[in-house]
Specification:
By secondary structure, the protein is an alpha+beta fold. Helices cover about 35% and strands about 20% of the residues. It has helices at about 50-55, 60, 65-80, 90-100, 115-120, 130-135, 145-165, 170-175, 190, 220-225, 235-240, 255-270, 315-330, 360-380, 420-425, 435-445; strands spanning about 1-10, 20-25, 30-40, 80-85, 110, 200-205, 210-215, 245-250, 285-290, 295-300, 310, 380-385, 395-400, 405-410, 425-430, 450. The strands form four sheets. The protein has a five-stranded mixed β-sheet with strand order 3-2-1-4-5. Strands 15-14-13-12-16 form a five-stranded antiparallel β-sheet.
Amino acid sequence: MYAIVDIETTGGHASANGITEIAICIHNGKKIIERYSTLVNPQRDIPIYISALTGITNDMVRDAPLFEDVAHDVYHLLNGKIFVAHNVNFDHSFVRHHLLASGYDLQCNKLCTVRLGRKILPGLPSYSLGKLCHHLGITNESRHRAAGDAEATSQLFTLLLQSDKGNHIPDALKQRSKEQVLPPHLPKNDLEQLPNMPGVYYFHDQKGKVIYVGKAKNLKKRVSSHFTGNNPGLQRQEFLRNICHITYQQCGTELIAFVLEAVEIKRLWPKYNRSLKRFEHAYALYAFEDQSGYLRLAVDKHRKYNTPLYTCNSLLEGHSLLVKLIETFDLCPKLCFIQRNTEPCTGNTKTSCACTGHESADDYNKKVNLAIDELKQALPTYAIRDEGRTGEENSCILIEKGQFYGMGYISHYFDVDNLQQLKNHLTPYPGNDYIKNMVSNYATRFPERKVVFA
């Protein structure tokens, strides 16, 4: 038995919007045997543009029952039935959310007439309810009203049942089928093609634009997890509606996938990625020459288009490093912006100092350059050699002088002992502290996979 449902709402996601009308047609597989329809008071104003679309106004629902008043009837009509709707996850998310708020936990199988239409009636220019009905000669006298759209969806579903020569409807209802949970515009084959391997996956919208990038230890399992659950929030509902295609890059290890995800988010700037977009270096150590010809070292906020000597996550970390350089190489605290008052230079135990002009720029700059060389030499150069995508190759990530250089795949037999030869086999990528720290932590956990270059 099928329950064909249509609702009208005050907005696009269940957690912050109400139902203004609900209609249910009980279908026995051949015809409608029972109808239910009611306006619902959503306990909030209906936006003007929605009233213009549906014709349902605040006055019309003012004296209508609250959803909690009709929840008992709705639940018993749906319970034990197969929940059918055009873009089923939208209607189901609203109905289930509001039933839960009223004390009813609806658990039922779902069928989406958008997805079924694409399979059973392929090749049509559009699968929106209005255009499908027009193409198939189904009359809907009350478009964008729950009763009219539920009736039209019921007629469409009858036609789909009659035309289902490929048994798509029984297949969609099988316990292991993903059809009932997938977004309406996503082909099932896109999910089925994914390997059970580490990698990076890309969700594309209708125009092919990447709207989300994710990484996975197991591509198929991770991508499938996006489509489970019943989160009624705006972001998730909009997100699912916009997924039309999935592509992926297989990676040798989860670490490669983590790094590639960070690189791709920075490159593509997808609409629905947020956390890694915000990651930037906080502070950095810079060197510059002042008007008197003295080399100055300074810790400042990271500047996108300036090249730092060293990056760090806090001002304290940067100042601690700079103090060590001052002490080791007898640098001037004032010229390094560590001492900012007008008192005599605290680092000067002699009568002459660069900040007073008694030490020449040439002499002082030699000490600064020694400090910079020491800093660069102290930054490690190493590779992480790990599993590849096949048994014939290894993955490899290179950190050069403390900075992420790039990564790629090398032959299982390649001897990683020459830095320049290794770089010829890798693809350079832009890096940041997030990637550098991630690789560094991995190298600490798995020192046997680390190849150090002198």
